[in-house]
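This section describes the prediction task in plain terms. A model, or a person checking by hand, is given the sequence of a single protein chain and must write out its three-dimensional structure as a string of tokens. No templates, partner chains or ligands are provided. The sample shown here is typical of the held-out split.
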Amino acid sequence: MLLVIDVGNTNIVFGVYKDKELMNNWRIASEKSRTSDEYGLIFEQIFRYNGLEHDDISDIIISSVVPPLMHTLSAMCIKYFDIEPVVVGPGVKTGMDIKYDNPKEVGADRIVNAVAGYEKYGGPLIIVDFGTAITFDAVSANGDYLGGAIAPGISISSEALFLRTAKLPKVEIARPDRVIGKNTVNSMQAGLVYGYIGLVDYILENMMNELSPNRETIKVIATGGFSGLIGSESKYIKKIDKLLTLDGLRIIYERNRKDK
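The expected answer:
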């Protein structure tokens, strides 16, 4: 079995594949202060609860946008699984030409999403990942990674409203029935949810215009924690694939395994 680990700023999402089938997946908080031993015990508890053993895992691949955790989790894999993980980064074959000014600047999660999106849906393609930040990534019809846009995530904006104002409360990020809120909580929810729908659709509209003169050929895929909330209201997002990043890690692992 293959263990795939996606390390984000807010959550670590990981899953176990048997061949191409995702057997199970889990989400835990990203805590930079945790040691490799602490993560090892967390993984061991989750595995045992789900009837898995460390020996069931034959290979591991990691992508990370949190450098300290990348090293912590790599050490955990070596100590607790006795496996040197594949870490997505320079030297790892993705099968995708990266048309960025400096390819090393592109977050590993963005490349993993692009690889999975093109493999599963073809191009031209735009992927919107609703994580701590919202990333928009464009892939050409030929499968080249072209670049994209980055915006603050909806949770960051919600937290900023609470921290930087004297009277606004913390609110649940949920879609209210109306844009015209009748109380403070609904007004904040309307501004956050409908505001981000507008942000997402405006960026997508302009990216689509730049990507292809024939917008009907462009696939727009959403992934990440708030993809259902925002993506379901978007004019342009037609597919929500919450497991896109995990699938991308599996695909990249397979492309590198063939070279061994």
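For orientation: The mean pLDDT is 94.
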